[in-house]
Amino acid sequence: MNNASDITSGMNSVTFVSGNADKRNDAIAILSPHANIKLVDYDLKEIQGDEKEIAKEKLDLAMKIFENEIIIVEDTSLRFIEFGGMPGPYIKHFNKTVGADGLHKMLYCYSDKTAIVRSTVAIGVPRHLTNDGHRQIHIITNNLQGKIVEPRGENGDKNGWDPCFQPAECELTLGEMNESDRRKHCSRVGALYQATKILKNIFNQNFEAAEKKEGNENGSVKLK
Predict the structure, then answer these.
(1) pTM surpassing 0.90?
(2) Is position 223 within any domain?
(3) 222 assigned to some structural domain
(4) In the chain, how many H helices and how many E strands?
(5) In the list 12, 25, 126, 175, which could disulfide-bond 162, CB 3.0-4.6 Å?
């Protein structure tokens, strides 16, 4: 049986694990107003599978490495409608090989240049931080539609595909946007905002369970 001190000690702290600096920057910007966040620069091995399978596997691995912490991981895919959703979660490998210009050329001869950026965020809560003693897993998916264009701009991840992705109803590519505007058109940011709502429920439910166990009537710590 978990005691109150076990739960409250890590109640509003989360660990975001990623070897990608842009992901870590987005995480600290979105999550830090709501939780005590620790960033860990660590590349998690990725299996073959769909976005949810990959995110779940990354989360499982991170929870084994950082077993006493609430963990958040994220996986981003870029899906070309013309290619039935490929490259999808394997975009990192495609991008390393051909770059933004190569991604544009892949669709150059096709009329449908629609692409969807999909961010999958996975949250894992270890057993000792839950009120029922069972590990909790939460998966969040957020999509952003746009199109692949000739690369423009050097902002964002200039070595990634930001310069060739133009969000729907926008005249600029992600590579042409400043940081503030890019975050308004970022699937990962949208998924992280959804994550704050889940974290709020996790923190408050666990504190209420701890408070009940202690018979403490001094109020509860709420997510900001």
Answers:
(1) no
(2) no
(3) no
(4) 6, 7
(5) 175
